[in-house]
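Here is one chain, start to finish.
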Amino acid sequence: MKLNVQSQVMDDVLVIRCKDRISFGIEVEALEAEVHEHTRIAGTDILIVKQVVIQLAETDYIDSSGLGALIRLSGGPAAG
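Its structure:
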């Protein structure tokens, strides 16, 4: 199944609800695009939303690429 995301900004916090799977390819790209679309001013690295919650309760499967994307998006040590 393909990743389905729903986004909502609440009090300067972006909440992204993920359904189905986050895996290599289009699903990872879709999640990263969703985060960047709602957190940055287009064409810049200027953040308009600094806090992001990614809800995974309805996510059935995450492969290593999906896990890597979540780490990158969290701004952790692997962020580049």
